[in-house]
Amino acid sequence: MAYSIEPIGIIHSPYKEKFAVPRQPGLVPSANCEIVLQGLANSLEAVRSIEQFSHVWLLFLFDQNLEAGWRPTVRPPRLGGNERIGVFASRATFRPNGIGMSAVKLKGVRHHNGQVIIDIGGADLVDGTPIIDIKPYIPYSDSLPDALGGFASEQPPTLIVEFSLNAQQQLSGKKADYHRAVITEVLAQDPRPAYKKGKSDNKTYAVNLFDFNVQFTVSEPVITVISIDTINQ
User: Fold this and answer.
1) DSSP character string of 146-201
2) Which residue intervals define the domain TsaA-like in the entry (predicted)?
């Protein structure tokens, strides 16, 4: 039996592409995102009392991966990208139904010209990702202090992020501090492929964040941002 799912909203985030998106929610706490509700869900009635909760669960579609299908096994970056495990023992984006879930901080709800917008923080979703449901995070049932985290029991180590003089000069304006904080937290997670880590790496990488193309190099344990160019819209 087949079922259909209709998105209830779209998220807008700093992450314009899959590369460098945090691998879990909360790893880039400075990142502000917003969910624009749509259709029948675009109603103040639908979000009544949601601000009683500090966090919410987002259920969403890995829409950029759906056409690629899925396989029973995957190679998680946390295991070096070489060891295979079952897809249901992972949070891989290539899944049977392409559904993901993230616990995020709820920052508020806005209503402007008939549009309901939910402000959240710390999300790990690509800009434009379809949201299929929102549920309140319930601490007494959702937080399980004695749970085992398997191969992902601890937060991955982070690298030191430095900005070249050129990159510092390119960051300007009222949001410069905010942009710098998000770029720092994103790159500190080391978004490179797992097989690149722990090895000499002379490559220059680039990632689109906000309206910027951020170029950086890596010499572990330091990532150096060498340029932050505005992308022509």
Assistant:
1) T---GGG-SPPP--EEEE-HHHHHH--STTHHHHHHHHHHHHHT--S-GGGTTS--
2) 5-146
Query: Which residues are 116's β-sheet partners?
Result: 111
Residue that has been written with the tokens 């945090």 in this structure? 22
Distance (Å, rounded) from C-alpha 153 to C-alpha 124?
19
**Residues forming beta bridges with residue 221, ordered by sequence position:** none
Q: CA–CA separation, 61 vs 101, rounded Å?
A: 9
In whole angstroms, give the CA distance from residue 9 to residue 132: 7
Residue 154 is which amino acid?
E
CA angle 88, 185, 127 (to 5 degrees): 60
Lowest mean pLDDT among 134-138, 150-154, 209-213: 150-154
Distance CA 200, CA 219 (A): 7
Residue 233 has pLDDT above 80, yes or no: no
Q: In whole angstroms, how far apart are CA 209 and each of 19, 136, 228?
A: 10, 28, 10
Model pLDDT for residues 65-76, shown as the tens digit of each residue: 888 999 999 998
Tell me the C-alpha distance between 109 and 120, whole Å: 9
First-to-last alpha carbon distance for the chain, in angstroms, is 44
